[in-house]
Amino acid sequence: MSIRIHTHTGEHIALEPNSGDTLARTIFLGGLWYGVPLCSGLGKCGLCRVRYVNDTPMHTADEIKKLGDEAVAQGWRLACLHPSKSCDIELPEPIRSKPTKHTLADTTGNFSLAVDLGTTSIHWTALVDDVPVASGQELNPQTGLGSEVMSRLAVAATPEGRTVLRALILDRLTELVQTTAAMLVGSCTSLVISGNSVMTYILLGMKPDDLATAPYTLSYTGGDEQHLTTELPAVYIPPLLAPFVGADLSAGLTALEYGQTTDYPFLLADLGTNGEFILALSPNKRFCASVPMGPALEGVGLSFGRTASPGAITGFTLTPRGLEALYFDDTASERIGMTGTGYLSLVAILRKHGVVNESGQFCTGSTPLAAKLANKVTTIQGEPAFVINSTLHLPASDIEEILKVKAAFNLAMSALLNAADFGPAGLKKIYIAGALGEYVSLGDLETLGFLPAGCKNKAIKAGNSSLRGTEILTTSKQARQFAEALPDTMIQLDLTNDAGFGDEFIQRMRFSYVD
To answer: Per the database record, which ranges form the RACo-like middle region domain (predicted)?
Structure first.
């Protein structure tokens, strides 16, 4: 018995069922969804839809909501919600996240490679003589086995899971080194990889027990070179600062502080599937904290969420003619959905005009333009939704996901400031890095309550500070010494194990900043 798959190209493929897995995971491991930003079991993205040819399983409420009555009646299901067992299915053309690559300089020779290994995305830069000559970003190939840190940890709990996860990333890193070497007609002489603690453990093939259950600890703290495979040079891993504040943050601090004139105190907020925060009071004293934020800001798990790639909407403007979309790449012919910053931009516009209230519910509005916007609120598959165009809409459940992210951000920021015993007015700068750090509007963050009122003027879009710091660490011994001294300056706040975490989180589930 097997899983018989009919692809959109007319191929017929048979896969062995894997007891205990979902159908989506089996299809992913079969190599058919490489580059597809799956939400990995959340039933939200809809990118794992398949059509059963016969013996169609009973549908779920989530499938009605996501696919609609007609599609469900035709046998369409979400593969993440059904077990991996013998069946006969049709697979539509996958919607893949397109990698981007840029040539920055016409130079060849031996090179250093800096890699920011995120839970959702990989960003990299190749440098010749310390000068960036090429860069790129793409979906982390592990995403189909868990869209955020804790689900990835669940897979890594078994030896088989660790082996598969590690092989996925090592194969891609090896391919990246080889293709870059061919492009630059040289060899990779230095490799630095910065990632959160979970990504680092998986990269090294380490058993992640100390990160999987409380009390969370670090059995490996980085700040050294590791040998991964014979195809790769020794890799330098920057220091891990706390169980869920990883090498990406020590690299980020290197970018912001090493060799720089720094205004203290400042807050660094690196936002991805896991929010990592550092409140730096001085060169010798820093607080750090982390909160789970889910994959929404990475463009994964929302109804029309996409990673930042050609054709994705990254923001909106409101004109007398109505909403106008801003795209990651205006030249892309295919329009594929919205990034996390695109969602924030839209919700902020609706919030400003009273079409979304403080609690995240749709309303009639409070400005002349609001009537036009409010007319686009309807009901789709039994759920209130704002219609963007003929193919995209914003359901109430997606607004709730944004509210969860806002609440997590707000909680971490207010907890750090309370620990340091001063308020937002005492901060000199707020650096927004990670998934939001390049495209987000700082005004949107203030409108939605991520930032306290009046703080957008001291906020700075730091872009990918982790990658910039990693670039510095590829060749500078002094920068590595700076990074390796950081752990001794850190005071960790453990937010999620605090007895009041749940109540504090719920209090912040509204679009206004709570101290």
So the answer is: 112-257
Q: Tens digits of per-residue pLDDT, 49-73?
A: 999 999 999 999 989 988 989 999 9
Bridge partners of residue 224, in order along the sequence? 237
The candidate with the shortest Cα–Cα distance to 75, out of 91, 62, 57, is 57
Range(s) of the domain holding residue 368 = 296-392
Residue 334 has a pLDDT of: 67
Dihedral pair phi/psi, residue 507, rounded to 5°: -60, -25
pTM, two decimals, is 0.93
The count of domains in the chain is: 2
Picking from 90, 117, 151, the residue at the C-terminal end of a domain is: 90
pLDDT at site 333: 60
Q: What is the pLDDT, as a whole number, of residue 331? A: 63
Q: Which residues of the chain have pLDDT under 50?
A: none
CATH number at residue 39: 3.10.20.30
Place of tokens 């996409």: 306
Is 484 a domain residue?
no
Q: Is 174 in a helix, a strand, or coil?
A: helix
191 and 235 Cβ atoms separated by less than 8 Å? yes
List Cβ neighbours of 389 (8 Å cut-off, separation of 6 or more).
Answer: none
Take residue 369 and report the two structure tokens written for it. Answer: 């333009």
pLDDT recorded at residue 329: 74
Burial 282-317 (b: 16+ CB within 10 A, else e): eeeebbbbbbbbbbbbbbbbbbbbbbbbbbbbbbbe
